[in-house]
Write a structure and sequence with these properties.
alpha/beta, 8-stranded parallel β-barrel, 38% helix
Length: 258
């Protein structure tokens, strides 16, 4: 983990969660629970265009920013997710500086970028916008060793709004898959955070415990992602049952096995 660094007193980090279970009800629950954003996952989750919109709407109803992790750098997929009203897009598996630049260009209309313009989509008010649409966030995931080697050039890109560190993918590429305390992984993550700090770029990481979140925030991480919805739900259910594993019914009680 990074060493603690001075932070701006009084400003809390942003809190979010990965989503791989399409459900407007779950979206509302997480939003009402205080999440600032949710990442609707099209890379590892089953989200399609018909399930994205209800969850985007549910986020918006509760003041929670709907982000979408696209499955790659397909221009049409990116365009459709933005047209639905995604507040930001998260891009996985970028390798070269050119990959980052190509993905960034997809976020904006010409002449700044390559995004196709259609004023009749939801993001632009179906042709009658009530207010100018806000610029969607461009959030690349730093999760390849090749990209990590170019971090100083990547963080100089003005279009990047947030860099998310994909520590699980980096651990696999370093040969220590899943070992988040591996010295080589910790050193690499700290180097990436320091490069972001020097460039003034916000950085995000996964925090699975409150203790981890405090350490990360103290070390310069401004955005905390609290795991994945499927894991958190199963973890909660297992915890409730495990807490009563030692409970036994009084003698003479009977119940059919399920």
């Amino acid at each position: 983990m990074p060493s603690p660094a001075p932070s701006n007193p009084g400003i809390p980090p942003l809190h979010g969660i990965w989503r791989i279970v399409p459900s407007p009800a779950l979206t509302e629950i997480f939003a009402q629970g205080g999440m600032n954003f949710q990442i609707l996952d099209r890379e590892h989750g089953p989200y399609d265009y018909s399930t994205l919109l209800p969850d985007i709407l549910a986020c918006e109803r509760h003041g929670c920013a709907p982000f979408v992790r696209v499955s790659g750098t397909d221009k049409i997929e990116v365009q459709r997710c933005l047209d639905l009203g995604a507040r930001g897009l998260v891009f996985p598996q970028l390798v070269s500086l050119e990959d980052f630049e190509r993905a960034a260009a997809m976020m904006d209309y010409a002449p700044a970028g390559t995004r196709g313009y259609n004023p009749f989509v939801r993001a632009l008010g179906y042709g009658l916008p009530a207010a100018p649409a806000s610029r969607p966030w461009f959030v690349p995931i730093l999760e390849t060793l090749q990209a990590a080697e170019q971090i100083d050039a990547i963080v100089r890109m003005p279009r990047i709004d947030l860099i998310y560190i994909g520590s699980y993918d980096l651990s696999a590429q370093l040969g220590c898959a899943g070992r988040m305390d591996a010295p080589e992984l910790k050193a690499l993550v700290e180097r990436i955070i320091e490069a972001c700090r020097r460039a003034g770029k916000p950085v995000g990481l996964m925090a699975l415990t409150a203790e981890a979140g405090r350490i990360l925030a103290g070390g310069g991480v401004q955005v905390l992602v609290h795991g994945v919805d499927s894991h958190r739900l199963k973890q909660s259910a297992a915890g409730m049952v495990a807490a009563l594993k030692d409970v036994r019914l009084p003698p003479g009680s009977s119940i059919a096995a399920l």
